[in-house]
Amino acid sequence: MSAATNRSLAGMAGLFGGSPRSWQLAPVYARFEVRLGKMLDAKQITGQHLAHYLRNIDVQWDRINTFDLPEMDFDEDDRQVLRLVPGDVLVCEGGEAGRTAIWQGELPECYYQKAIHRLRPLTDRDLPRYLFWVMRYAVTQGFFSAHGSASTIEHLPAEKLRLFRYPAPPFETQRRIADYLDRETARIDALIAATERLLTILAEKRQALVTYAVTRGLNRATPIRDSNLSWLGMIPKHWELKRLQFLAEVRTGLTIGKDYGTKELQDYPYLRVANVQDGYLALDDVTTVAVPEEEARSCSLAVGDVLMNEGGDIDKLGRGCVWRGEISPCLHQNHVFCVRPHSVSPEWLATWTATLPAKSYFETRAKRTTNLASISSMNINEIHVPLPPIVEQQAIMTFVTEGHRRLDSMSAATVRTADLLRERRSALIAAAVTGQLVVGR
């Protein structure tokens, strides 16, 4: 027996070591036929018998996409051995190796490509739905990932899947476990969905709070006037409205990959679009760039600068936050604008960029390509900024900060609840398929 096989058997013993002795630890090949699908070959498409087929991406956990599937020719032999029938267990060979769903006969005729394993019970003593839950547990525990290929993209070869040993109790026990997990995980999933809806509501409330406060103020009885800007609408009558170019200097950053010839270079950390989030900085992955000292000086950040993204996904345009000198020195690349205020509070400006009207402005002025968008420094300079009196600005910022603190606390509690529910779901699956939880009749 090979060393790799010994390691695999040891891993399976650890995975299912606590299973009841009466449950047979059976290899998949002894109970299911394992067959890879058809190799894709555009030259084989003649149109003689075109039929839909599933790709790896179409097989998600407990869900199969059958919308707008591609087609390929399947000859008579293919149709005999590769046609899907209800109850077939489909296991992803690559990507998230081991991801599993069960074919329920969603289409009258359908096949599958080579990136998918099809497992079909050899007898009526095995329940596909029970195997689904076993696979869910094994993947969650990282079993196939840990024993898969060492390449960047994980793979689950057919031979490893065939040799995978799992606890196979009697058919009636399999049915009770599968029914129990279907029922209980559905309840937990409904609760998780409710927490996700709550998080969405809290995010929307956060957005509404900052938008209303920064465009209308705190006193609802304050007289208002038309800003004469379609994307902004009404603002308090006594507020000023100025273009950003009169309030701050918009500075562009480094062009990465520039050739500096024979000049002496030095490494500096710099910020990318990924580092500048909506209202906060993600500094866990900051890269460096080698540039001359004079270039670094022209692109260095200073405490109080407001960072705004120049490009990326449409929802990332203009989003930003105040630089507090978290890294010193630190530069910024040309996809991140450095806005250096001289006649406006950095906090007020950063908060203003998070409002719905500001986001609308950035989106309407953006230059779009297929998947990305960008905005010019000229358009950044042209955005109008509402300016209450300083005392009112401070009161609004205090209100927004306290409101954000309350909403963030509620969001954090909701996330913790969702995490606990996911842990509960994983624990139930593990206990049921290993026999630690006795499922009643």
Fold and architecture overview:
By secondary structure, the chain is an alpha+beta fold. It folds into three domains: 3-169, Adenine-n6-DNA-methyltransferase TaqI, Chain A, domain 2, CATH 3.90.220; 174-195 and 388-441, no CATH class; 218-387, DNA methylase specificity domains (Adenine-n6-DNA-methyltransferase TaqI, Chain A, domain 2). The protein contains eleven helices and 25 strands. It has helices spanning 3-16, 76-81, 128-140, 143-146, 158-163, 171-216, 293-298, 346-353, 356-365, 377-382, 390-433, and strands spanning 24-27, 32-36, 50-54, 59-60, 63-64, 71-73, 89-92, 100-102, 111-112, 116-121, 165-168, 224-226, 234-236, 240-243, 248-251, 266-271, 287-291, 306-309, 311-312, 320-322, 331-332, 336-341, 367-368, 373-374, 384-387. The strands form nine sheets. The protein has a four-stranded antiparallel β-sheet with strand order 2-10-7-8. It has a four-stranded antiparallel β-sheet with strand order 15-22-18-20. Helix 3 (128-140) crosses helix 11 and helix 6 runs antiparallel to helix 11 (390-433). The longest helix is centred in the middle third of the chain and has 46 residues, at 171-216.
